[in-house]
């Protein structure tokens, strides 16, 4: 026999002496609401996993493709700078600036890739990833941050990982 989920409210009517003379109450079937809440939790979990996978894919693509192209660009600029026809004094500042811009773009792409989905999250777990993330933040910004991770943190929870790094 299934017992329905209900939510009830009640109130009392008291006389002048404070004694209860009547009870009023309602019961509402909340089974549909509970099922809808469970479905919302399930769909939210699917959305979080899809977002995490998309972040992972974009980070991997940035690292494996765009960053590699920038490395090749920097190498090509260096070869061009060293070529005989480009050794004139008027070209040196142009090549230096182009190399600096390529190096800057490479650092930014690597940082963005890391910030989208820290590789340590899968490799070493949540606690190490948080510590490494905060250490990098301190190096990039000059802000000193101390991290204490609770021993009660459930490091295996995908939702918690998403909240920490999203």
Written account of the structure:
63% of the residues lie in helices and 11% in strands. With 166 residues, it is mainly α. It has a two-stranded antiparallel sheet with strand order 1-2. A hairpin with a 5-residue loop joins strand 1 (6-14) and strand 2. Helix 1 runs antiparallel to helix 2 (92-116). The two termini are 45 Å apart. The model has no long low-confidence stretch (mean pLDDT 82).
Summarize the structure.
With 166 residues, the chain is mainly alpha-helical.
Summarize the amount of helix as a percent range. 55-70%
Classify the secondary structure makeup into a structural class. Answer: mainly alpha
How are the strands of the biggest sheet laid out side by side? 1-2
The backbone outline, from C-alpha atoms, is elongated
Mean pLDDT: 82
β-sheet strand percentage? 5-15%
Total number of strands: 2
- Number of helical stretches of at least 4 residues: 5
The H-and-E topology, N to C, reads as EEHHHHH
- Main sheet? 2 strands, antiparallel
Radius of gyration: 30 Å
* Cα distance spanning the termini: 45 Å
Residue stretches low in confidence (pLDDT < 50, at least 5 long) are: none
Write the layout of secondary structure elements.
Elements: E1 6-14, E2 20-29, H1 31-82, H2 92-116, H3 120-123, H4 126-141, H5 158-165
Antiparallel strand pairs: 1-2
Helix pairs in contact: 1-2
């Amino acid at each position: 026999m299934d017992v329905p989920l209900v939510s009830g409210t009640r109130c009392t009517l008291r006389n002048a002496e404070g004694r209860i003379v009547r009870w009023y109450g309602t019961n509402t079937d909340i089974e549909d609401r509970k099922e809808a809440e469970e479905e919302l939790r399930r769909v939210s979990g699917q959305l979080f996993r899809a977002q995490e996978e998309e972040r992972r894919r974009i980070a991997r693509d940035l690292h494996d493709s765009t960053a590699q192209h920038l490395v090749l660009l920097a190498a090509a600029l260096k070869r061009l700078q060293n070529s005989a026809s480009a050794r004139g004094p008027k070209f040196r500042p142009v090549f230096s600036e182009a190399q600096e811009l390529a190096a800057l773009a490479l650092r930014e792409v690597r940082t963005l890739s890391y910030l989208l989905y820290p590789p340590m999250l899968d490799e070493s777990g949540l606690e190490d990833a948080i510590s490494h993330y905060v250490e990098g933040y301190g190096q990039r910004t000059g802000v000193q941050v101390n991290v204490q991770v609770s021993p009660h943190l459930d490091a295996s929870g995908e939702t918690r990982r998403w909240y920490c790094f999203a």
